[in-house]
Every structure is written in structure tokens, then in C-alpha cells.
Amino acid sequence: MGYYISMFVVAFLVFFASSVVLATDTDPIPENRAQISQWFQTNVKPYSQRKGTLDPALDAAEASRRVITVNQKGGGNFKTLNEAIKSIPTGNKNRVIIKLAPGVYNEKVTIDIARPFVTLLGQPGAETVLTYHGTAAKYGTVESATLIIWSEYFQAANLIIRNTAPMPKPGTQGQALAMRINGDKASFYNCRFYGFQDTLCDDRGNHFFKDCYIEGTYDFIFGRGASLYLNTQLHAVGDGLRVITAHGRQNANDQSGYTFAHCKITGTGTGIYLGRSWMSHPKVIYAFTEMTSVVNPSGWRENLNKGYDKTVFYGEYKCFGPGSHVEKRVPYTQDIDQNEVRPFLTLGKIQGSKWLLPPPKY
């Protein structure tokens, strides 16, 4: 009899654990902005409450954390970020938290695929800046980034990531990335990204951005990522044609796409577009987002290839502000309802229940 009771208890615990994981993937971001913090705390619990429910490799990595300190003025383990990264062994299996003292780090940094489980952590309330001046003319577009991430399970918090290459003149090409994220299962908290053309290459993999700021001119968020942006400001600068997104989805079966929830679109002048069809099947959704008057009334940049009118997926749901009026939107804007938007507003979009964790404390 005791055997059957034990088996029943085990079965119940397995079912309960499965239910917890499922809930974090299906609970939609609330419409009420004031409820975001509670939603996040409920659905993105710390590792201490998630043991046994995460990806096995991540579970093992979080159980054995290591902290490295970087301070340009001395007193830390290293004086440069690149030195700290090189100290991480290839094939790393432990969470490595790199604490950066406030300051300006003028370095071009790459975290390669052989060094997963890396966290770059700045001090809250202080300015910790990663900066470089790489350009497409010198490095190629995607290699021009100040910070390039290939590793999986990456985290960053409380950082400013900047490309200081000059703003290109209107009508000229001047790609210069602040960051390229090419690793799967990456999260960014309270980070600010500054550039002009192609500021953020959000490419390949599941990514989460919360409480961030992204500034640029043209295609300043681009790539093939499956990404959720929450409570993030999108700020367009400069004159002439400005476009926020150029998503790189190329076929209808691709599960990638960008969701912007409870974000805010600001900028200078008028005529900012929400996105354009860089590739044939871009998928971009704005929900509960404040759109100021800088947004072009048509919303989305006209497709140069008219065949893309039938393959783009541009959705807006319960956005507000003078730039949110849909009366003059291009005809291929998706009229999505509550049921259609729901999958884009859950952690299931980025498979978050298996890997997404809050940032560590400094």
C-alpha cells in the first residue's frame, strides 16, 4: 500500500511541476501597465524557486555560479572586459557573472559560442558603458558591433552599449551596430543601446528585453530573432527616412518575430515607420504601446516588392497615443483580436519557461 501512495505522490509532484512550467508559458502580459511587475515576478522566478524545471544544462550552470570583477582603476580581478572573458574556459558549464565597475569601457567585445552562461552586470543607478566606433566599411555590417554575442544563456543588466561612429548623412549608408545578439536564450534588463543605422542586430534565437532603451535612425532593430520587448523605449533620431524594425523572417513556417508590449515610441520630427519588409515574411506586433505623433500615419513602410503585401505580418493591438490611429494604416496591417494576439504576449513565444531568469543582484 505504501508503494502505491508513494507512486501517487510522485505522479502528483510531476504533474504539479509540469503545470507550473506550462503556466509561465501561457500567462499573457496584462493590459494594465501597473501589473507588469507582478506578472514578471509570478512568471520569471529566481533559480532558487525553479530548480528542476529549467533546461538541464542551465539548471546545472546556475547551481555553480562564479563571480568575476572588472575595474579599470584596479581592485578587481581584471581591468578590461576582454581579459575577463578570455579567462572563462572554452566549454564553460557554470554561470559566470562578470561585475563591471562604473566607467567607460572602450573595447570591441565578442563572447563566442564556446563560452555560454555569461552574465554582464553593471551597477544599478551608475553608468557602465561599453563603447566602440566600428563601421560596416571597416568590419562588415554585422561584425561592426561593439558587443557581439554568440554564446547561449547570456544575460546583461544595467549597461549602456554604444557605437560612436558618426551619424551617416541622409541618403547614405552608414551601418554601425551597438550590439549583435546571435546566441539563443538571451535576456537584457535595464540596458540602453545607442547607434544610428542598424543599432541592434537582434538575430537568431529567443531573446527577452525588459526596461530597455533603443535609439537609432534606420532599421535600428533588425535580424531574424524571436524576441519579446517589454516596457522598452524606441527612440528615433535624425532627419529623413527613419524605420524602427527590419525583421528578417523569410518563410511562413519560421517561428521568429518581434513583439513590442507596453513600449513607447518617441523621436524627433515626423514620419517614423514601425517597420519595413527587409525580407519577404517579417512578423512584428505592437501591443499596448504608446505611439507619439512621430509615427507616420501609414504606420509601415511601403513594400518595394508588391508581392510582400501578402506575406508580411504587421499587427497592432490596443496601442494608444496620436501616432496609433489606424485609419490611414497601409492595407496589409493585420487587424488582430484578443485571441490572435495572445500567443505573442506570453513567454511561450520565446520558450521562456525553460530558461528565462531574472538578473542577479549586483
TrEMBL record:
It is an enzyme of class 3 (hydrolase). Keywords: Aspartyl esterase, Cell wall, Hydrolase, Secreted, Signal. It comes from the Eukaryota. Residues 1-23 form the signal peptide. Its EC number is 3.1.1.11. SUPFAM superfamilies: Pectin lyase-like. InterPro entries: Pectin_lyas_fold, Pectin_lyase_fold/virulence, Pectinesterase_cat. Pathway: Glycan metabolism; pectin degradation; 2-dehydro-3-deoxy-D-gluconate from pectin: step 1/5. Residues 68-333 form the Pectinesterase catalytic domain. One of its GO terms (molecular function) is pectinesterase activity. It is found in: Secreted, Cell wall. One of its GO terms (biological process) is pectin catabolic process. Belongs to the pectinesterase family. This is pectinesterase.
